[in-house]
Amino acid sequence: MVNKKQQKRGxxxxxxxxxxxxxxxxxxxVVFKQDLTGKTLHEWLAMALFAGVIAHIIxxxxxxxxxxxxxxxxxxxPQTRLNYVINGGLAGAFVLMGVSGLxxxxxxxxxxxxxxxxxxxxxxxEIASNLALAAVGAHVLLHWKWLWVNGRKYLVDDFLKRLPAxxxxxxxxxxxxxxx
Length: 180
Known about the structure:
Blueprint: H1 4-9, H2 13-32, H3 34-37, H4 39-59, H5 61-70, H6 78-103, H7 119-142, H8 144-161
Helix pairs in contact: 2-4, 4-6, 6-7
């Protein structure tokens, strides 16, 4: 049951993060395979994806600052340290991907009078893209439980509750079901 305070607040931060994460993940997979979009759309979608990643980092900035301050001095769970390292690698790979992508751009950079830098930057772009793919995979594996529980809660259960013809079915008898 949603109370009036929750209604005023709008979408929960967890649901927002879930939807944002799924959007970034799917966007990355589409952009990763340039054959799906063609070069021009690949470049523009990648710019939008990069903006989405920046927004994601802003959403979680307090966590980044907090863990950065405590990384070497405090007792942190190993999973938190691993998450921090993976996220740092992912952020670094995305920055390299973005910069190298702009350097080899054939659609975006000519708008401001710059051309294709080619060679070295194409190699950097390919390496950064593959590193990002591995880091995205590691990130998903590290957070699979959160994705499963919240995906079920906010996507499956919410969807089934909104099916009037089915009387608002529920995917599971309780939210504390065991995971697969």
